[in-house]
Design goal:
CATH topology of chain A: Rossmann fold
Strand content of chain B: 15-25%
Oligomer: heterodimer
CATH architecture of the largest domain in chain B: 3-Layer(aba) Sandwich
Structural class of chain B: alpha/beta
Shape of chain A: globular
Radius of gyration of chain B: 20 Å
Strand content of chain A: 5-15%
Largest interface: A-B, 45 and 45 residues
CATH topology of the largest domain in chain B: Rossmann fold
Number of helices of chain A: 12
Number of strands of chain A: 8
Shape of chain B: globular
Structural class of chain A: alpha/beta
CATH superfamily of chain A: Thiamin diphosphate (ThDP)-binding fold, Pyr/PP domains
Helix content of chain B: 25-40%
CATH class of chain A: Alpha Beta
CATH architecture of chain A: 3-Layer(aba) Sandwich
Number of domains of chain A: 1
Strand order of the largest sheet of chain A: 2-1-3-4-8-7
Order of helices and strands of chain B: EHEHEHEHHEHEHEEEEHEEHEHEHH
Largest sheet of chain A: 6 strands, parallel
CATH class of the largest domain in chain B: Alpha Beta
Number of domains of chain B: 2
Order of helices and strands of chain A: HHHEHHEHEHEEEHEHEHHH
Number of strands of chain B: 14
Distance between the termini of chain A: 55 Å
Radius of gyration of chain A: 19 Å
Largest sheet of chain B: 7 strands, mixed
Distance between the termini of chain B: 49 Å
């Protein structure tokens, strides 16, 4: 059996072409951002273990390529982002301030949401990052509204809405795809299929192979790709964004990927095997991309280490910022409920 | 934006229109003066809306701004949330308020919470209009009064106009409130008429209206029950009983002060609403009055008259008996004033 990620691998020639188009500077930046996401997630886990944060979190370790390839294939800060609960990586890739993200994660007043949202609800409204979701598929109907607003305001923005395999089984998914399609709204529906909705495998949760196939029901073009290859991600999302901007209406993308950690902090992972995890870990998007950059002559091995160390330092600095930040004042408890 | 509209202007005599006409006029005038306002809902275009509120508007504004949707309540509500979040002023229509159950996630988890959850940095200035109430023979799934569900959700506002004048003025305030507003329109009220100013005007949210002054008993009534309570008051006046009828207009925010002052004045309180009595808004009003300075002035127990604890039946006579009618209000008010409790 071909690995689900590899079945949709980017053609090697096309991969070389994409890498060439990106060039060494952007390639380096991509690698740095992937390392930054990994470092953020590892630190989040560590802080939780140390008892420095309370509440839960959903880590995206293993899915970094999807976040980085996606955000960089649209116009970050001009286009809109609607994010899901496993969303730290997308925020970082969008370019949202990491210090303020970490402060939010630690519940501090300087956080993006003044400590009211936490890990699951980071939003950077000024940069059109319209926030992460705690309700599976909750952002899909909203994306219809953002797409409609773009259409009525007659701008050339697009709305990128990211959700998981679990979300595609919600009624809201189907209502939203249909509505966006009949009105030809500029919405990029992006499903990160990481194989499990909490403990429920996609093999048990639907009777078809691919979520992307559901696009056909609504007259929406779709594409499936290796979500663990940042070049494949970038290539697919760029195609989708270009298609949408040409006025053809929404596109549905499906990234085949995998989360290395459990669903959240309470997950004992009884629903999958060590072997399966190891298979996917062998497709770690970070060393795969680093090797390509070295092979292309864009980086030396020592550069990779420098970039990695820099990313981990960025996260240390963010923790220092967050730890030095004030707690929200209880006197402000009721603020921000109404405009 | 609201500053440019007169507040509570006097209604010109002779300009009597129905509630449907007042709402349509308000929607038209709002859309004429602000391109960020648009309408979205099921069958609101050529069909004109299930109750005719939007009739003809698609001819003037086109299908982009008077937007028919598929039967997809969650997605049409999300379309309001997302567009409000990005600079528009959507006015959604829930064809029958009962169908709002299919849109609860978008209203309760999204519209209501986005601003707070994101640290007060986003806003969702949307209005959801909902056609509510019984009396049309539409039976159990097309007759609900679910307003109190939304009173229980911080982040939403809940408005219940009681006549055509109130409906137009409150609509203007709702559109420019800056928050998600649930706007419950009673179906029997749609055809009732009163004098309404032609120009746009506002009635502030959170300010109750003393619809009739009286000394013997305070009735706090909502929506169509304000009209029924006023009729009850006219009948009881012949017996020398003077009812004060207070219309809160908005259930959230609630104008405690006006309610409390009225009860201090009359010493007796009857709360009337169409929604099922148990868990209804009347309980909240009773609790607030009991916890207020008015408590010491109460000369009788606080009484509630709500819908019976049952689904709405189809049969005309049974349906009538499921919710308070004028004669029920007359009887309950008389007993309360005459010391029966």
């Amino acid at each position: 059996m071909i690995h689900p990620s590899q079945e949709y691998a980017l053609d090697p020639k096309r991969a070389k072409q994409v890498l060439k188009e990106l060039g060494p500077e952007t390639g380096r930046k991509f690698l740095e951002t992937m390392y930054t996401i990994r470092a953020f997630e590892e630190k989040a886990e560590e802080l939780y273990g140390l008892g420095k944060v309370h509440g839960t979190m959903h880590l995206s370790i293993g899915q970094e390529a999807s976040a980085v390839g996606t955000s960089n294939a649209v116009r970050k800060g001009y286009d809109y982002l609607l994010n899901h609960h496993r969303g730290h990586g997308h925020c970082i890739a969008w370019g949202s301030d990491i210090d303020r993200m970490m402060a939010e994660f630690m519940g501090k007043e300087t956080g993006f949401c003044r400590g009211r949202g936490g890990s699951m609800h980071i939003a950077d409204i000024e940069n059109n990052n319209l926030g992460a979701q705690g309700i599976v598929a909750g952002s899909l109907p909203i994306s219809v509204g953002v797409g409609l607003s773009i259409k009525l305001r007659q701008t050339d923005q697009i709305c990128l809405v990211i959700f998981g395999d679990g979300g595609s089984n919600e009624g809201a998914f189907h209502e939203s795809l249909n509505m966006a399609s009949i009105w030809k709204l500029p919405v990029l529906f992006l499903c990160e299929n990481n194989q499990y909705g909490m403990s429920m495998s996609v093999k048990r949760s639907m009777n078809i192979e691919n979520i992307a196939d559901r696009g056909a029901s609504y007259g929406i073009p779709s594409r499936i790709y290796d979500g663990n290859d940042v070049l494949a991600v970038y290539d697919a999302v760029k195609w989708a964004a270009d298609t949408i901007r040409s006025g053809k209406g929404p596109v549905l993308l499906e990234a085949k990927t995998y989360r290395w950690r459990g669903h959240s902090k309470s997950d004992r992972q009884l629903y999958r095997t060590r072997e399966e995890l190891k298979e996917w870990q062998a497709l770690d998007p970070i060393p795969r991309f680093a090797a390509r950059l070295v092979e292309a002559g864009y980086l030396k091995d020592s550069d990779v280490e420098t970039i990695r160390a820099g990313a981990y330092q960025t996260i240390e600095n963010a923790v220092a910022y967050a730890e030095a930040s004030p707690e929200p004042d209880v006197a402000t408890l009721m603020e921000g409920i109404y405009a | 934006m609201l500053e440019k509209f007169p507040v509570n202007p006097p209604a010109p005599e002779g300009r009597v229109i129905t509630c449907v006409e007042a709402l349509r006029e308000g929607l038209r005038q709002l859309m004429e003066q602000d391109p960020s306002i648009f309408l979205i809902g099921e069958d609101i275009g050529v069909y004109g809306g299930a109750f005719g509120v939007t009739a003809g508007l698609v001819d003037q504004f086109g299908e982009e701004r008077v937007r028919d949707t598929p039967i997809s309540e969650a997605a049409l509500t999300g379309a309001c949330v997302g567009s409000a979040l990005t600079g528009m002023h959507p006015i959604g229509e829930m064809q029958f308020s009962d169908f709002v159950v299919l849109a609860m996630e978008q209203l309760v988890m999204q519209a209501a919470k986005i601003r707070f959850m994101f640290g007060g940095k986003a806003s969702v200035p949307m209005v959801m209009r909902l056609a509510a109430g019984s009396g049309t023979g539409a039976a159990a799934q097309h007759s609900e009064n679910l307003e109190n569900w939304f009173v229980h959700v911080p982040g939403l506002k809940v408005v219940m106009p009681s006549n055509a004048y109130e409906a137009k003025g409150l609509l203007v305030s709702a559109v420019y409130d800056g928050n998600p507003v649930m706007f419950f329109e009673n179906k029997l009220m749609y055809k009732t008429s009163c004098a309404v100013p032609e120009e746009l005007y506002s009635i502030p949210l959170g300010k109750a209206n003393v619809a009739r002054a009286g000394k013997d008993l305070t009735i706090v009534a909502t929506s169509i029950m304000v009209q029924r309570s006023l009729e009850a008051a006219r009948q009881l006046a012949a017996e020398g009983i003077e009812l004060e009828v207070v219309d809160p207009r908005t259930l959230n925010p609630l104008d405690d002060e006006t309610l409390v002052n009225s009860v201090i004045k009359t010493g007796k309180l009857l709360i009337v609403h169409e929604a099922v009595q148990t868990g209804g808004f009347g309980g909240e009003v009773a609790a607030r009055i009991a916890a207020s300075p008015a408590f010491g002035y109460l000369e009788a127990p606080i009484r509630r008259l709500g819908g019976k604890d049952m689904p709405i039946p189809y049969n005309r006579n049974l349906e009538k008996h499921a919710v308070p009618q004028v004669e029920d209000i007359v009887e309950e008010a008389r007993k309360l004033v005459r010391g029966a409790y």
